[in-house]
Amino acid sequence: MTDVADLKKTLGRFHEENLGIYVHVPFCRARCRFCAFYMEMPGENRVQTFLSGLDHELRLYASDVGLRAIPVHTIYFGGGTPTTLPSRQLIRILNDIRYWFTVEDDAEISIEVHPGTVSPDSLRTLRQSGFTRLSVGAQSFDRNELRDLGGRAFGAEVRQVVSWARSVGFTNISLDLMYGFPGQSMESWQRTLGEALSLSPTHLSCYAYTLEEGSPFHREMMQGKGAAPDQEFQLVLEGEAVDRLVAAGFERYEISNYCRAGYECRHNMRYWHVLPYLGLGPSAQSSLGHARFGNVADLESYADSLKRGTLPLDEVTSLSPDQLDRERMVWGLRTLSGVPVRMKATEQKTTLLQTIRQLREQGLLQVEKQGRVRLTDLGMRFVDTVAVALL
Ligand code: SF4
Fold first, then answer.
1. Does domain 321-391 sit in CATH 1.10.20.10?
2. What is the fold of 4-272?
3. Is the C-beta atom of 79 inside 6 A of ligand 1?
């Protein structure tokens, strides 16, 4: 746990021009088999503990840490499944953020939505209260695959949510899909992509399945059941997504993200461009200037710490200028537009430039005339190798 004064010392002279706020709502009705995120079942007491922790946390950051005057450009409610909370509680959180912070009139305000946790009325209330963007967790449109993943939504329910959302005025709707999990075939992935496109979303996120330690799939694997992801097949499925989505008019603007022109997720762009964001709620991570810090992944400790007036941080790191350059490079390379290299000749930067040269010789990076560095097609396949080399 960290005193506000200690965090302020780490932040030093902190002058950010704008801010994104991420709210981690840690509740889900059941755990999906691929998921290792921190989550809780939503009992009434647990929810009240969370809301009261959040009240304290907002006040501490806005008033005591001094972030109140920084214009907030984006807010993102993620989790967990934020919509396991009734819309009145979600709106209360949003209004509290507006009370404590300076939220711009045209801020992008996103919320992750899972079918089965929303209705036309709840979506209408969210829209009328200022949420501007929905991210719908679809994963797959194949009933058997969804059952195996432990999801509770089926294609028809996703279609229904999208239709309700449009009817109440949401025009910016994203769908989350997953590929390369055990049992998925090329044919079922093609059907899923086709179904997703038929709903005319403005944005699609296509994530490769990974075997996360702590997930039910991982436990099964340790008991000798199940299979590890087939990375070669995943690349084939990813290629199919690129071909289908680009042909349908989507731009691939980040390794896993596609959008119609002008519909990039502004909040997620902050992560890739290393712009400041404040994470609220248990296990949420923050990045302000050169400081990186994260909340404990435990609701009770989170709320207790805030009640005592201390921040529930389990780790605070201060990056050196060299580490900051490398972080910017690694995150920026995830975007298809790449990242500018502005280097003054220092010893550390010479080392970084040498790494970039080696990666270019291996065919993983390309350097453009204007001094921008981008991943090649090969680099996109080996993005983790590139990241390890750069960090
Ligand atoms: S994947 Fe999402 S909905 Fe499923 S358990 Fe994890 S956080 Fe909850």
1. no
2. TIM Barrel (3.20.20)
3. yes
